[in-house]
Amino acid sequence: MKRARIGLLSIICGVIFIMGLAFSKPVNVNAAEKVYEIGTDVTYPPFEFANDQNKYVGIDIDIMKTIAKNEGFKVDIKPIGFNAAVQALDAGQIDGMIAGTTITNERKQKMDFSDSYFKTGVVMAVAKNSSIKSYSDLKGKRVAIKTGTAAGDYAKSIQKKYGFTTVTFDDSNNMYDDVSTGNSVACFEDQPVMQYAIKTGAKLKIVTKPAEGGYYGFAVKRGKNQELLKKFNAGLKEIKANGQYEKIVTKYLGASAMASEKKDKSQNTFVDLWNQNKDALMGGLGQTIILTVLSIIFATIFGVLIGLLGVVPNKLANGFSTTVIYVFRGLPLLVLALFIYTGVPNLLGEKIPAFIAGIITLTLNEGAYTAAFVKGGIEAVDDGQMEAARSLGLPYGKAMRRVILPQGLKIMVPSFINQFIITLKDTSILSIIGILELTQTGKIIIARNLEGFKIWTMVALIYLIIITLLTWLSKWVERRMKS
User: Fold this and answer.
1) What residue segments make up the domains of the chain, in order of their start?
2) CA 329 to CA 303: how far, in whole Å?
3) Closest C-alpha to 455, from 238, 274, 190, 217
4) pTM greater than the 0.70 cutoff
5) 185-211 pLDDT, tens per residue?
6) Does domain 34-117+217-265 fall into CATH 3.40.190.10?
7) If 0-12 CB within 10 Å is exposed, 13-18 middle and 19+ buried, where does residue 355 land?
């Protein structure tokens, strides 16, 4: 018992230390200085992506940082993905968004846009060996598009006319792979993005001229952050006048930039890719482990309390426990994450950091499953055990602590460790709200080098190693409990 208490105290101290690291913020010596949080995609080269040092670069990023420097304000770039950025902006989670966002009348209902900083058009690309040459060849076939993009909207607008179906992806690399592997016959993308992807290794070719030219703009929530919008417009005008804008565009779309990227592509062996990206992958793994540990601690506390409410002799408590378990087990984790990250801030008018939203999401979802097996473990103990304890004069609470729970714990422990493994895997879903865990880190790396198979193999192996170790731990604990 003494060892158990020491172990428990060590765990608590460790959790407090991890929480301190996770939630602590650096001291800002100039607290009055405004730092704007800007959402972006970082899987949309050449406009935003992570370079081979895993620093966020691209036309959009460089324009934003240059304007901020010239206009005397600071920005904190949030790599949360296009879809998440749109929802976060609407929820007030971020101050602005620069992610190759095409200015449209529909988007103007929710966003205020800056002056345009780039003109583009939509093109259709097919596999290199494809015989498709025009929209007319798409009849009865499947076309890949990317969620929430103007290119995707354009494809849908001509879908009925040309008789094709669409399949939607959240990132460009998976869309390109779907076409190059033959699952879809074509994809729609903005011209400079498609040109950049082909130059850097995508096995596709463009077969149409740019259609429905659009304009990219920096966006803020409608009616909000107007001062930031004015600063961006003033800064954009200045960098176009002094030549900085042209230098930025040439840096990423010039002939020398394309040649450099193409040359680097040939050197992407599995070992080279690991050496280039191991620090970023290990950083993503560290974030995954912190998320998992904190979430399982809070989920265990939440689950045990809800589970115990399900077995106490009180109908109201039983009903509350059953309802909580039913609701949070019934909600898909993805829906719950988006509801907490974007829905709740809209309701409360307060920001919820993505990391905190992720912890809350996993706590509620995994806690509901924990509550179910805690309740089941206690109910699995023979009813006669409680009756015997009560007949000896033990109060209900003491009988539960001294007699029922020790027996139920032996039944629950393997489930606790299995839930830890499930929680570790479920952290990957939190990439949808932009948390830089292992899966999101993999997406960002792939957006730069388009080496999806090799990078996902690395990510899969990392997950497999950690889960194998946890499985061994589960079996070891189960053997110790039985001995």
Assistant:
1) 34-117+217-265, 119-214, 270-482
2) 12
3) 274
4) yes
5) 999 999 999 988 888 788 899 999 998
6) yes
7) buried
